[in-house]
Amino acid sequence: MAPGGGICKDVIESRVTFAEYDMATSSAELRGSPLRKAATSLGGNLGATSTNDVHELLECPVCLNLMYPPIYQCPNGHTVCSICKARVHNSCPTCRNELGNIRCLALEKVAESLELPCRYQILGCHDIFPYYSKLKHEKNCRYRPYHCPYAGAECSVTGDIPFLVMHLKNDHKVDMHDGCTFNHRYVKSNPHEVENATWMLTVFNCFGRQFCLHFEAFHIGMAPVYMAFLRFMGDEDEARQFSYSLEVGGYGRKVIWQGVPRSIRDSHRKVRDSQDGLIIQRNLALFFSGGDRQELKLKVAGRIWKEQ
Ligand SMILES: [Zn+2]
Ligand SMILES: [Zn+2]
Ligand SMILES: [Zn+2]
Ligand SMILES: [Zn+2]
């Protein structure tokens, strides 16, 4: 069975322009701050007023984050979180008195008795958590915003899937295609210069969900390679319900990859570095391209299906 063979009418073509795709050195995983920023703005969404007041008491006056034990106080009773305590050189940020090492056990106990909604409540999470397990939950809350899957220039946009789909379409001008089979042609003149920096993104709508097909050139050790892989726009437990295949070939030879799409919770860089996709050595890619090896012309046929 040849995935996509004969079913897909139109061949999608991408012309790779290397200058446009500047792979940022920082990985998406390091972009904690946009998520934190988004999350902080959602954080004030608490139910009862009394909880709100206590919530304010638990806010560190310096970093404005919620405090966790050990919580410190100055002789006048002003509180500060342990991280900021180390930064303020033992001087109370509120009254400038010497801080010392006085724990505020009462506030720590109050915190323990609190139950707070997940900070992603307005994104759909309705769970309530004891104060000290709230943070742990929020790190893995399935309603937490996703990072933009576009891997090129720094993009700090976060949001839910429908929002990110619109964002990819409007702001990154990503090609969107309907269908679970595809034939995608990657064309690049001058494949011998470059590398480590090229990539393409195409999004497929299939089973009512979205899949990101990444294609890029980089080096494994000294060897120049091309790699194609699929990421699922959703969480990992859902991604595992799908499989996909990619194949590329020519002149009677063929390379086939079958895999499971990775969730976009895993950064583009992480998936690439784990080599979880179709990898083609440049020499083979040029052989498949035919001609005089001066132009890369790779046709990648693919299929996405749902596992039973
Ligand atoms: Zn602090
Ligand atoms: Zn003080
Ligand atoms: Zn949650
Ligand atoms: Zn983006």
How is this fold's topology laid out?
Blueprint: E1 12-15, H1 32-43, H2 49-57, E2 71-73, E3 79-81, H3 82-87, E4 102-103, H4 105-113, E5 115-117, E6 128-130, H5 131-140, E7 146-147, E8 158-159, H6 161-171, E9 175-178, E10 181-189, E11 198-206, E12 209-220, E13 223-232, H7 236-239, E14 242-250, E15 253-259, E16 262-263, H8 268-273, E17 278-281, H9 282-289, E18 295-306
Parallel strand pairs: 1-10, 9-11, 13-16
Antiparallel strand pairs: 2-3, 2-4, 5-6, 7-8, 10-18, 11-12, 12-13, 13-17, 14-15, 14-18
One zinc ion binds at residues 60, 62-63, 65, 81, 83-84.
Task: Explain the overall architecture.
By secondary structure, the protein is of the alpha+beta class. It folds into 2 domains: 12-31 and 145-306, Apoptosis, Tumor Necrosis Factor Receptor Associated Protein 2, Chain A; 33-140, Zinc/RING finger domain, C3HC4 (zinc finger) (Herpes Virus-1, 2-Layer Sandwich), CATH 3.30.40. It is 24% helix and 32% strand. The chain is built from 9 helices and 18 strands. The chain has helices at 32-43, 49-57, 82-87, 105-113, 131-140, 161-171, 236-239, 268-273, 282-289; strands at 12-15, 71-73, 79-81, 102-103, 115-117, 128-130, 146-147, 158-159, 175-178, 181-189, 198-206, 209-220, 223-232, 242-250, 253-259, 262-263, 278-281, 295-306. Strands 9, 11, 12, 13, 16 and 17 form a 6-stranded mixed beta sheet that branches. A 5-stranded mixed beta sheet has the order 1-10-18-14-15. Strands 3-2-4 form a 3-stranded antiparallel beta sheet. A hairpin with a 2-residue loop joins strand 14 (242-250) and strand 15. The model is unreliable at 1-9 and 17-48 (pLDDT under 50). The structure holds zinc ion (4 copies). One zinc ion binds next to helix 3. One zinc ion is lined by residues 148, 150, 155, 157, 167, 171-172. Residues 113-173 form the SIAH-type domain. GO terms for molecular function: ubiquitin protein ligase activity; zinc ion binding. This is RING-type E3 ubiquitin transferase. Pfam families: Sina_RING, Sina_TRAF, Sina_ZnF.
